[in-house]
Amino acid sequence: MERAQEHVSPGGPDQPARRPGETGTALELLVHGVGGTTPQEMLNDPRTVRITGDNIAAVFRRADDVDAETSPDAHRRDGPVPEAYVWCNLTSGNGTRALWLLLLPFMVVNLAHWMRPTARGRRRTVRLYGLLVRLAGLTLTVLLVAAACEVALDLAAWQCAGTLACADRHSWLGFLSPTVSDGGWWSSPGRRLALAAFVPTAVTALLWYLSKRTWSDYESQQPIDRAPEPDEDGSPTALGRPGFWYGRRLVARLRAAHTAAGLITVAAAVASAAARRDREPGGPAVLNILGLLLEAALASCVVAVVWVVCRRGRSENRLDRELDERFVRRLPLAALVLLGLALLYAGWERPGWESAGRLPGDLTFGGIALVQGLLVVVLAVVAQILHRTDPDRRAVLRGLGGPAVAMLACALGGVMSGGVSQRVSDWLDGTGTSIEGPPVLLTWQASVIPPLILVLLVLFGWLGRRAWQLARAEREAVARDYPDEAQDRARTRRIAYTRAMAALTDRGPRIVAVTSGVTLLLGAGALVGALTTDETPGEAAQGAYPLVHGAAETAQALGSWLIGLGFILFVTWGRRAYKDAAARRTIGILWDVGTFWPRAAHPFAPPCYAERAVPDLTWRMATWTRTTGGRLVISGHSQGSVLAAAAAWQLAPSARKRVALLTYGSPLERLYGRWFPAHFGPAALSSLHREVDCWRNLYRLTDPIGGPMRLPGDRGHQVDHGPLLDPLAYGRTDLLPLPAPILGHSDYHADPAFAEERRKLLNRLRPDLPGPRHTGEPPCPGPDADPQGSSGRSSA
């Protein structure tokens, strides 16, 4: 593909503007949505040129428009210069992105950090909210490493290698078996554990490497570092702060803490078994003392890790380029030294030591589950306090969206760790009698999956009934929208059903609330059952009523089967996505939504693509308006509209006034405004409307993602066009002789209203007009204008 150098003047975006020629050229910057597309499709031209950017994200123009600003024919243009910003490779570029599925719990808990309610005058409570989410993220790291320890240390090295029947079936474990190897050097339980510890250590090192590598590839781009302008007031959203999209300091510090936590978890798993042996009567006194000292050192390192995680996150009011060197380097190094000492301590010769039963430390998973449950409960209390200080009726679950999502992240971590342990145990123990298997708590957690699925089936049944009722109600609305058409029952039902299914998006919070609440209750029951009985559900229910015993055994067997099926599907999906670009693009859509936010709660979450995309867009808009003195329209579809809004907030107020915003199929209010009220709430969206040149938003009732901005008062009509008709024609017409499709979330350009609103916006970009809000044909109507525009009916 051809390339050209971007025509910009030297210097930063705040230096005096140089206007080459005053050709009157205007710019339209297109930003695509989820799933991605090609620059040829966005620009409707097979010949495109990359004018700035790289293979990950870039800005493209048509080949004929490369030097449009300086071309002598620029004044003859009928419209603006179109540019396409293509960022899809940030989330679905190569096959390694499929491995990000393993980081799903980390991504979800990071989302919970940004879901805090809007609050005023509650700085300490806001900090407490962030601290609790960061601690929940830390427990997920410990849980993942503990699951790796369970597989490698307990199931393989301790149980299987220590049992003749299991070691015989797996010859690769023979050199670790005391019987098969005839007392070989590695057959000592401590040395087996020390050798197996390299597996969870490698997992921790891989997470550290991925976090550091993805930061360099995606998030290391610095935003514009500018001084505040004299008339610049405080914004109601943090998205406009200079340092919001540059979290290098926080990510580096959290990466060090989580890496140290993973290494300490491995060291504790290895050392605890040896220390327990040394504390038995007749154990070596010297090793006992060394074990106590090692455990004290590990406890001190744990305190240091928690303290680092609890510290304030970062400074967003400036571009924070500093690094906490003493934490970033010394803390993981100290944990690595303690791990080496633990391996040396466990590998010391202990005559007569044999492995039997499960590896000591079954309470680890119970302790993690208990801490996670307490953190979620306290987080819910804090979220309610914040919500009551500044209530937002549109916020999901009355401010409890963050705690609910944090609970789901913990549940995902538990299911994934339990699924891996169960599958490895079944693989090692073919007959089911040679080894005891994973901790009892993991079996209890698997057993609560069938009741949870049953509750969800009831909920989905209710949602289906609700969708049917909505579809019936929408049939009359469809008839009103096409009054001059002969009604076709099948066509009407199809349109009404599509609208009803799209409306179910607004009931998503109920699904999250029910799932999170039931998971919390069932998880608490599983924890109590495991700790009080120390038996599997089927064994604990023996002697009870036959119905209770049968239900317990059924739940246990079905839960284990479901976890196995889920694990197989998970691996299969990841493998397919690794090889298939189409499947990888589907996973990329998940990351488009989940990795928009910076890694403020978990450093091992998938990288934040917006820390690359938002600075890209901001630099492009700021430098173009500075060098040309012109105005531009930034046109965003779906997730692209979120990026466009975030980039507009990053501009200086003087540059922001030269930018018009066109959004379509936008989730800015419907999803982001409700789930992230502190950053995309009504006050933030209202301020964006006041500060940009103009803003128009298009949506359809058949769109499950996009929706109106619902700004208060007359500002709502100034931004929102009435819902566009979908399909464009009910039956066959002269212009559309074939049946028009129901477009839903796609192809907004096909609607004539889109071209009309775009034309009005672009007319405002003519340099001969005196000001951004004094044109003869304003696309942002006042309170007396028709809120429906040229087509569609008003929204409810």
Description:
The protein has 796 residues and is mainly alpha-helical. The protein folds into 3 domains: 26-90 and 615-765, 3-Layer(aba) Sandwich (Rossmann fold), CATH 3.40.50; 102-117 and 126-223 and 247-435, no CATH class; 450-579, no CATH class. Helix content is 55%, strand content 5%. The chain has helices spanning 39-43, 89-92, 104-113, 123-160, 164-169, 189-196, 198-219, 248-278, 285-310, 325-328, 330-346, 363-389, 401-428, 440-447, 449-481, 489-503, 508-533, 537-540, 546-579, 581-594, 610-628, 639-650, 653-656, 668-675, 677-680, 682-691, 715-719, 752-763, and strands spanning 2-3, 27-31, 48-53, 58-62, 81-86, 632-637, 659-664, 694-698. The two termini are 47 Å apart. Residues 1-21, 221-240, 760-796 are annotated as: Disordered. The chain crosses the membrane at residues 98-116, 128-148, 193-210, 256-275, 287-310, 331-348, 368-387, 399-421, 441-463, 511-531, 555-574.
Briefly summarize what is shown.
The protein has 3 domains: 26-90 and 615-765, Rossmann fold; 102-117 and 126-223 and 247-435, no CATH class; 450-579, no CATH class. The protein has 28 helices and 8 strands.
For the biggest β-sheet, the strand order reads 1-3-4-5-2-6-7-8
Helical content, roughly?
40-55%
What percentage of amino acids are in beta strands? 5-15%
Count the beta strands: 8
Tally of discrete structural domains? 3
Count of DSSP H/I helices: 28
Radius of gyration: 30 Å
Largest sheet: 8 strands, mixed
What would the keywords be for this entry?
796 residues, mainly alpha, Rossmann fold, 3 domains, eight-stranded mixed β-sheet, 28 helices, 55% helix, 5% strand, disordered N terminus, disordered C terminus, AB_hydrolase_fold
